[in-house]
Amino acid sequence: MEKTFLMVKPDGVQRELVGEIVSRFEKKGFQLVGAKLMQITKELAEEHYGEHKDKPFFGELVGFITSGPVFAMVWEGENVIATARQMMGKTNPQEAAPGTIRGDYGVTVGKNVIHGSDSPGSAEREINLFFENDQILSYTKDSNQWVY
Ligand code: RTP
Ligand code: MG
């Protein structure tokens, strides 16, 4: 089954949006298979956002993503990479549709609440960058078993 890397950025953690964001992907029907609250180092940030290293906003981007804890996650499901990007909305929250995470909670492009892998190649790269193999679980969900 397809997997993607999603991350609540420091602004989302500070604004107490972790639960809301996790809830959206749970309700959609995707499965959480890995998660951790962590502090990103400068080295990890520069590698993660390596594709942007020549952009004028690179320094600001690295500074922001290392400015406080992030909530890193691996989610699994059919077509989860592209669907999660749709649920996140456009990069600039001012262009992101209402109903998307950035459309509902973001205001500026520099603080846009959530990161998501943009392709199968970046999903594999980013999952391996942030998670060890044994931190990604495989399990089936049977909610009745946990109620009765
Ligand atoms: P992300 O990688 O964080 O999920 O965002 P994205 O794919 O939607 O956008 P991307 O083009 O990969 O840009 C990465 C992050 O850089 C910041 N950015 N700032 N000041 C600017 O013009 C500008 N453009 C991009 C955003 O925070 C964006 O999420
Ligand atoms: Mg990106």
From TrEMBL:
Record-listed Phosphothreonine modification sites: 91
Source organism, top-level taxon: Bacteria
Nucleoside diphosphate kinase-like domain ranges (all copies): 1-138
UniProt GO BP: CTP biosynthetic process; GTP biosynthetic process; UTP biosynthetic process
An example molecular function term from Gene Ontology annotations: nucleoside diphosphate kinase activity
Catalytic function, reaction form: a 2'-deoxyribonucleoside 5'-diphosphate + ATP = a 2'-deoxyribonucleoside 5'-triphosphate + ADP; dZDP + ATP = dZTP + ADP; a ribonucleoside 5'-diphosphate + ATP = a ribonucleoside 5'-triphosphate + ADP
UniProt-listed NCBIfam families: PRK00668.1
Name of this chain's protein: Nucleoside diphosphate kinase
Organism: Salinibacillus xinjiangensis
